Amino acid sequence: NLNIATILPELHFTTLVRSINGTYLYVDVTMNGQEVIRATLYGVVGESLLIPITNHQEVMIYEPIILKPKTLVFPWHPKPRSYRHPIQVIGGSGNFTWSSCNESVALVTVKGVIATGDNRGFSIIQAWDVENPIHFGKMRVNVLRPVSIEFVRSRVEIEVGQTLDLPIMVYGLLDSDDMETVPVNDCSLMNLAVEMDKQGVFKVIQGHRMVIVYKRKGTVSITVYLVGYRKTNIAIAKSPVGVFLPITATIDLLLVDDVSLVPRNLTVYNHPDILEIVYLTEGSGYFFVNTTDTEILTSTYLETKNYVQIRPLQPGIVTMKAYDLCLTCKGPARAEIYVSDIFDFELDFIHKVFPPFRLIPRKVTLIIGGMMQVMSEGGPQPQSNIYFSINNHTIAKVNELGQLTALVVGTAKVIGIVQAVDDDTGRVVVFSQISLQLSAEHNFAMLLYSKAEGKTGLKVTIKAQNPSAGQFERYVDRFSDEIQIMVFGILQLLPLSLPAEEVLMSPNSYLKLQTSRDGKAYVNYEVRKCPHNKSVIMEDGHGVLTSGSRTGSSALTVTSLEYFGLNQTIVTGVRVAPVAYLSINTSPKLYIAKNEELAALPLGMTLTFTVNFYDLSGDQFHAHNTKLYLALNR
């Protein structure tokens, strides 16, 4: 029956729900800062105060507390070793108390620095705002057994005598049904051992992941071992006793020479119809090419074909330079190009009439990791030398024998050049060249959206278009795999109708809590300790809240421990306040004409009376100890 007007600063608040008489409001906080909320009581319905009553409340609004990073993963060591990592806190008042739910896995200092313990598992780190214990942020720390190691994709082109950094990634095993592995954030305290299949190519810097390219080019395999660990067999990963294998990772490297320009010396006839080509060989495949004088000739670098087209403009001498963008070389590759007019010439006929040079097949499609032998036909006979190259070394690689291997999804071109020796002059002559197109099949991905709780399965089947061609091993026509997916419900405290609502109890009352995960997970309740005074409520360990005679507020943490390893946590406020008034509602509802009073009830009608209790703010109680007495006049 009260008539209250409330003034909210529009810069900081947006009103969502407002009662008719202004006794309560649901608002959305839009901006942090310090503001004042003012309210005026003008009277009750049908009667106004001569002098309205005005009061105000100062409100301090903070940004939400966010801990960065949200998740940290560290490797577990057989011998105790402690990793340390500072946690960045965003939002809040700036004054926090820290807690760890499992200090045997990870503990946190008063300054927000995490230190790992001796045990494997996980711990939830929480930062509580001293100004308001309901305001908190959290992050997760995992200490996992390392189960695999791999080399991270990085630059692997290096000049002889230089240092090559080969970063690695260590993966730990989560305690889940799907045997999921995640990369660790820090493996600096782990011992690594390095082995190579060929000696004399690299020198290893002891205790680091760097190697020095020592002597010659070629292929080499580098294997890294995690010292002191064994890889658990997936079939018995949960068993304390099992079959163990060493945790290793291997990378295959191709060591190449510096880039070269072929030919290194070239004489070009000064005529607008002349078009000459200079090839780029060896190197990483990524180059920058320029010339010293653009008035003597024009040059166009075709990256996809890995050569430079030259057109003369006027007589002169030009130096062409090619810089490798991936290799740290002592200097660029050079070629001297002479543009000259012709004053005299000699005709020298080379006695080689031969069929066109071709690469077979003309187009190749491979899956990642697939290999194929590139064949050739035609050209000068006998074929003295065929040089194979590829325009994109990241997509695929080809060796000197024409063996092609797909690396990643994409398209590239393989170029074949036939070189032979002229019988009369003894010079090496490029007689013919041709290219073929290579493409790798695309991978695929799916996004799944959960719609309801329950279990389901996802099966993926890959079919070969032509099984007889041996696209799959053992000439099978398909591969398939299947995973099980479980969708679980969100944790919610059932007495609350709004996520931001608090539990309201009267003094000396009790309330049995219920959640949406009861019967599906282990639910734990914990009353947070207040920094300055005792809590106004107690919890018996089974979800029963009991309030004492004192009024005030406390924070309640509700955690559901799911059987598949994940946890859900919500924090809500519990306020103890005296009952201010009650309201009586009847059902069913009776409809009457406008401005007409209900003078009597139908004979024989059954009425249900519902009594609700409220505090001074108009909030309804979830639990109270008020006794009701019913008095009838007849």
UniProtKB/TrEMBL annotation:
Pfam families: Big_2, Ig_NUP210_13th, Ig_NUP210_14th, Ig_NUP210_15th, Ig_NUP210_4th, Ig_NUP210_5th, Ig_NUP210_6th, Ig_NUP210_9th. Residues 353-428 form the BIG2 domain. GO terms for cellular component: nuclear pore. InterPro entries: Big_2, Ig_NUP210_13th, Ig_NUP210_4th, Ig_NUP210_6th, Ig_NUP210_9th, Invasin/intimin_cell_adhesion, NUP210-like, NUP210_Ig15. This is BIG2 domain-containing protein. It comes from Scyliorhinus torazame (Cloudy catshark). The lineage of its organism: Eukaryota, Metazoa, Chordata, Craniata, Vertebrata.
